[in-house]
Amino acid sequence: MFFINGVAPSEAAISQTYCLKKNVSALKKRKNRRLDYHRRPFRRFYFSSGQIGILFFEWIIPDHLSFYNLITVQDDLWFLRYQQVGDSRGKVIQMYFQYNESMSEVLKIGFLGAGKMATALASGFVAMGKLKPQNLIGSDPYPEALKVFEENTGGQITDKNTDVARDADLIFLAVKPEKVGDALDSIQRYWRESHCLISIVAGAKLDQLAAHLPAGARILRVMPNTPALVGSSASAFALGEFATRVDAEITTALLNSVGITEEVTEHLLDAVTGLSGSGPAFVYQFIEALSDGGVASGLPRELATKLAAQTVAGAAKMVLETGIHPGQLKDAVTSPGGTTIEGVHELEKGGLRATTMNAVRAAAAKSRKLGRPRSKGRLGKIS
After folding, report:
1. pLDDT digits (tens, 9 = 90+) for 144-169
2. Of 77, 247, 268, 305, which is most buried with the most CB atoms under 10 A?
C-alpha cells in the first residue's frame, strides 16, 4: 500500500511516487492529466516477470462508472480500490490510494423529498462534516419544505426531481409512501449506472422500488429516525440485490456520523420501523408524562421537562455503555419499601409494558401495510 497526500495526483505523480518507493526506473511520462473524481477510472497494476508494472495507457473501468464505484470508507478517509483477475498479461493485484480528504469533498447527495426526515439527515451529515452544502441538493413540490431544508442545510433546492438525478451520485428517497412510484418514475430516464438509491420510506420494499428503476439499479432500504438532527439517530439498513459492499460501507459511514446503524435483512425492517423509527415519538410522550408528573408534584414546568429529558438520556446511556440488562438496572434503583418501587408498581398497574409493546407492534404492522402494492411489484398510490 502506498499513500498520496493532498489533492488527486496526476498520472505522472503516481508513476514517480511508485517508482521512488520501489527503486525502479520511472515509466515514460504521459500528458499530466489530473484524475477526474466523477468520470475517470483508475489504472491496472500487474505482476509482470516478477516485477510490478503500471499500465498508464488503459482505463480499468468504463467512463460511465464514477469515483463512487471504486471507494471504501475507513476513519473518514477514502480508499480507492480495484481488482480484476484473469487478464492474459499477468496476475492483477489490488492497490489502494489514500487521500487526505473526507467524503465531504467528493460525495454528491440528493434528496427526493425535503421534509422533516430528509432535513434531519441532511443537516446532520453537514453538521458532522460528512457533506459539504454545495454537494447537497433537495427537491420537493412544497416551497415551505424547501425553505426549511435550505435554511437548515445550506444545500441547493429545486422543485424538479430530475435536477437531483442529474446532480447527485447518492439519491435518498424521502417522500410519502403514496408518492414513491411517481417520484422514481420521474427520474427513471435520467438514471445512471453510477447512481445509488437509498430509500427511507416506511414500508417500501426493495423489489417494489426496483420495479420503478432500470434493471440492475443499486438500491438500499434504510430506516433512520429524527434524532439524526442531533447526532443520535438509531438506524438500520438492508441491501438490495445489486447493492455492493462499497454501498454498504458508505451508508454505514454516513449514518454512523449521525448516530448508530446496523445492517439487517429486509424482513426485519418493518420491526425496526416500529421500534426505532417510531420510538422517538413514544419516548417524547414518556418524557412529557414524566414532566407532567413533576409539575403535579410542585415543580416548575421548565425544570420538570429538563430533569425528565436528562433522566431518560442518562438511563439510555447507562444501558448502552454498561451493557447491563435494563431489568437489572431497574432493580438496582428499587430499594425495598422505597419510593421507586411504589412508582414502578403504578406503572405496572397502568400496563406500561404491554401498552409500549403494543405500540411497537402496531407501528410495525402499519409499516407492513404501507408496503402492500395495489398492483403486483409496483408502488403507486397507497390508501
Report:
1. 999 999 999 999 999 999 999 999 98
2. 247
Ranges of the chain with pLDDT below 50: 1-101, 376-378, 380-383
d(C-alpha 198, C-alpha 302), whole Å: 39
Strands 136-139 and 156-158: parallel
pTM for this prediction = 0.70
Q: Is 125 exposed, middle or buried (0-12, 13-18, 19+ CB in 10 A)?
A: buried
Q: How far apart (Å, rounded) are the C-alpha atoms in residues 47 and 53?
A: 6
Contacts of 258 (CB under 8 A, 6+ apart): 121, 124, 125, 128, 224, 228, 229, 231, 232, 233
CA distances from 175 to 55, 197, 198 (A): 46, 13, 12
Q: Which domains are present in the chain?
A: 11-101 (no CATH), 104-275 (3.40.50.720), 279-350 (1.10.3730.10)
Give buried/exposed letters for 335-370 (b at 16+ CB in 10 A, else e): eeeeeeeeebeeeeeeeeeeeeeebbeebbebbbeb
What's the CA gap between 259 and 276, in Å, rounded? 12
Query: What was the pLDDT predicted at 58?
Result: 29
Task: Name the nearest CA neighbour of 107 among 263, 250, 262, 223.
Answer: 250
Per-residue confidence (pLDDT) for residue 105, from 0 to 100: 62
Distance CA 208, CA 203 (A): 10
Give the pLDDT score at 106: 66
Question: Cα separation of 210 and 198, whole Å?
Answer: 11
Q: Say if residue 33 is exposed, middle or buried (CB neighbours under 10 Å; 0-12, 13-18, 19+).
A: exposed
CA distances from 207 to 82, 104, 215, 239, 378 (A): 29, 30, 11, 11, 8
Question: What pLDDT sits at residue 93?
Answer: 27
